[in-house]
Amino acid sequence: MPPAPPSTAAAAAAQQLESLLRRLATLSHYKQFHAHLLTSGHLLSSPPLRARFLDRVALSPHDAALPYALLLLRSLPAPATNDLNAALRGLAASPQPARSLLLLAGRLLPAPAPPRPRLDALSLSFALKAAARCSDAVATVQLHAILVRLGVAADVRLMTTLLDSYAKCGDLPSARKVFDEMPVRDVATWNALLAGLAQGTEPNLALALFHRLAGSFPELLPREEPNDVTIVAALSACAQLGALQDGLGVHEFARKIGAEYNVRVCNALIDMYSKCGSLSRALEVFHAMKLEDRTLVSYNATIQALSTHGHGADAMRLFDEMPTWIEPDEVTYLAVLGGCNHAGLVDEGRRVFDSMRVPPNMKHYGTVVDLLGRAGRLDEAHDMIMRMPFPADIVLWQTMLGAAKMHGNVELAELAATNLAELGSNVDGDYVLLSNVYASKARWADVGRVRDTMRSNDVRKVPGFSYTEIDGVMHKFINGDKEHPRWREIYRALDDIVSRISELGYEPETSNVLHDIGEEEKQYALSYHSEKLAIAFGLISTPPGETIRVIKNLRICGDCHVVAKLISKAYGRVIIIRDRARFHRFEDGQCSCRDYW
């Protein structure tokens, strides 16, 4: 048989190498393959094979593989665009994505550099993903300019990546502008803007965009339909806003498009229902999932839901029941510790902390310090701070100050306040707590000194505000609010509330009002806290017996907590308040926190 023509033999050799390439698994394999490409001449004669090899090495999980890929790229006398793209892709996905931008700028190539390969849409796509991971807004703008100059702005996928990068860098106006100017959009484009708005500062706009898409998606997406990513983004917006009615609507849309049992959708539903105050619905979704479909995220979301709603023992039980094939992570432990903290399960919390299989971070230590402090074990809490492998931050010392105030420990309160001052904290709550500790010991001169310090430091109070949802519309209230169209009715309702709960023994708790004013003025200041206004509006805007849900940006104060309990008894209502730390469910004069908060 005559020998095969050279071209056929070369093609056969290249095919064998392609087959071998798919089986490379170790750095040693890569080096041997590289050596063969060099000795056989394929490194220069087979650019497609070389680029695929570079791509495989650059994306390898081995620590030394990516540097090796860059070394290979630098050794090429004339790297092609595909060679550059392979390295850009690897760097963009690496722990140091900023190096992808350096490579694009030519700074990782040798000097004098070889002829620079021409950039294409794929090059810019990888660079934009790197910019998004770095939150590098300046690089995103520069890449946008290059994109326009290269004339690839008609590429829908590339423009979607650009939009996504703007959104992840926090430049939502630019992201919206890119979206509005795209003549053609696919479902990924809609999803990118939805997710950017929902996870950024515009969840209301995200919901408006979702409703626009859901209402006419056959026209807006003639060849596609919304998918699980669309649903997850919309649910994220609902969770952030606490918009239960919108959340129910998104859930119904998920059923309509057949995404209801998608695992990511289920996880997002658990989170959304929990953050909207409907723990029962969150648990329904979790228990409806097949055991084999549940992921770590499923358990984390459900444990967190139980914890923030005050069901610490149930959170512990679910944690203990996690399948052995699912390994807890730092989020799991934080959720369980939070449940122990909210429920006062001190020994259980210590057991969980001592048995952690991941290194505890500042939040884990902070939760245990809070747990010990609330329980009155102040020396243990302080010892834990002193034994941490890293210095305590502002939040941790604020936690310690709160515990000292709760138990009237002046020495510890002063220590915490000193550390807060050294760390640069200038929050009004710190001064209120310290002043209250002094006041509880009748140290009025020290109370005056704290007030003077507040004046000299120009300490501003963080404004409190609350939301409540009525018929799918969110209503916002601030302390002493008279901007609402029905404010006169709301104030009359508050007068009625005070009259009715006074019959149940209500007396205003004015100890947390740090103002140099009389007792009557303090009571007036308390009467119109934003959560009271939201509850009063809920009472006059909903039928008897309907649950009232309120979202508060700060921690609920002691007086509002008492008032909410008494309103639930006097008016026969369930009131659910989500504050900065947890959920409070008030029913028949009791709160789910059992006054341990």
From TrEMBL:
<dbReference type="InterPro" id="IPR032867">
    <property type="entry name" value="DYW_dom"/>
</dbReference>
<dbReference type="InterPro" id="IPR011990">
    <property type="entry name" value="TPR-like_helical_dom_sf"/>
</dbReference>
<dbReference type="InterPro" id="IPR046848">
    <property type="entry name" value="E_motif"/>
</dbReference>
<keyword id="KW-0677">Repeat</keyword>
<feature type="repeat" description="PPR">
    <location>
        <begin position="262"/>
        <end position="296"/>
    </location>
</feature>
<dbReference type="InterPro" id="IPR002885">
    <property type="entry name" value="PPR_rpt"/>
</dbReference>
<feature type="domain" description="DYW">
    <location>
        <begin position="505"/>
        <end position="597"/>
    </location>
</feature>
<dbReference type="Pfam" id="PF13041">
    <property type="entry name" value="PPR_2"/>
</dbReference>
<dbReference type="InterPro" id="IPR046960">
    <property type="entry name" value="PPR_At4g14850-like_plant"/>
</dbReference>
<dbReference type="Pfam" id="PF01535">
    <property type="entry name" value="PPR"/>
</dbReference>
<dbReference type="GO" id="GO:0005737">
    <property type="term" value="C:cytoplasm"/>
</dbReference>
<dbReference type="Pfam" id="PF20431">
    <property type="entry name" value="E_motif"/>
</dbReference>
<dbReference type="Pfam" id="PF14432">
    <property type="entry name" value="DYW_deaminase"/>
</dbReference>
<keyword id="KW-0809">Transit peptide</keyword>
<protein>
    <recommendedName>
        <fullName>DYW domain-containing protein</fullName>
    </recommendedName>
</protein>
<feature type="repeat" description="PPR">
    <location>
        <begin position="155"/>
        <end position="189"/>
    </location>
</feature>
<dbReference type="GO" id="GO:0016556">
    <property type="term" value="P:mRNA modification"/>
</dbReference>
